[in-house]
């Protein structure tokens, strides 16, 4: 709604609903061709990915008890957020969220690097990025959920675990809704 060029998008594949929007600092096609699957791709790739969505069933890799799972291959090429630069040796990043019985959430992230040495460097870079991103405004908008977050290396794997309290989870949702110009239902 807030993107002046946004709206319905014909991806050229029958049964695939498309919407043109803006994310990651660029225009994006949001495609739905199967239940529980959303593809977010550059607009010039919409038809190609729409065919993939209709070509074969895609089983979401959300595991029992998860609220969300995101897998990004080659994040240095896929994610364009000002001030955020992923290391090239980070080949895949996986993020997932598990709800907690107290209303909070466990947020996990792990990534695969090419060598143990590159994992150590990537963990240090990611820890620095988190610290730099966690400005006063971010701390206010997240109720400090990133305070103390640290990425560690284990062989060729990097990982982190952040526990968000119910208050932090609610603050993050409220902040996201404010930034997107939408109203959350209680």
Task: Describe the fold and architecture.
The structure is a single chain. By secondary structure, the chain is of the alpha+beta class. Helix content is 29%, strand content 32%. The chain is built from five helices and nine strands. The strands form two sheets. Strands 5-6-7-9-8 form a five-stranded antiparallel sheet. Strand 2 (17-23) and strand 3 (26-34) form a beta hairpin. The longest helix is centred in the C-terminal third of the chain and has 18 residues, at 116-133. The chain is globular and about 45 Å long. The model has no long low-confidence stretch (mean pLDDT 88).
Brief rundown of the structure:
The chain is α+β, with helices and mostly antiparallel strands. The protein has 5 helices and 9 strands.
Assembly state: single chain
Helix content: 25-40%
Distance between the termini: 21 Å
Strand arrangement across the biggest beta sheet: 5-6-7-9-8
User: What characterizes the major β-sheet?
Assistant: 5 strands, antiparallel
Count, helices: 5
- Low-confidence stretches are none
Shape by Cα distribution: globular
Instruction: Tell me the fraction of residues in β-strands, as a range.
Output: 25-35%
| Counted beta strands | 9
Q: What sequence of helices (H) and strands (E) makes up the elements? A: EEEEHEHEEHHEEH
Kindly state the mean pLDDT as a whole number? 88
SS content category: alpha+beta
Cα Rg: 18 Å
């Amino acid at each position: 709604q807030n993107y002046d060029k946004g709206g319905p998008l014909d991806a050229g594949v029958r049964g695939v609903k498309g919407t043109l929007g803006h994310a990651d600092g660029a225009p994006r096609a949001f495609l739905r061709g199967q239940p529980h699957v959303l593809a977010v791709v550059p607009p010039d790739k919409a038809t190609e990915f729409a065919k993939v969505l209709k070509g074969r069933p895609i089983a979401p890799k959300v595991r029992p008890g998860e609220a969300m799972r995101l897998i990004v291959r080659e994040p240095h090429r896929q994610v364009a957020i000002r001030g955020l630069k992923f290391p090239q040796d980070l080949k895949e990043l996986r993020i997932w969220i598990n709800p907690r019985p107290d209303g909070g959430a466990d947020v996990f992230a792990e990534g695969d690097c090419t060598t143990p040495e590159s994992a150590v460097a990537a963990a240090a870079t990611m820890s620095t990025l988190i610290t730099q991103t966690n400005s006063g405004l971010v701390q206010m908008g997240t109720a400090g959920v990133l305070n103390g977050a640290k990425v560690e290396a284990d062989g060729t794997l990097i990982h982190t675990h952040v526990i968000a309290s119910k208050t932090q989870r609610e603050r993050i949702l409220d902040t996201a809704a404010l930034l997107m110009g939408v109203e959350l239902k209680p």
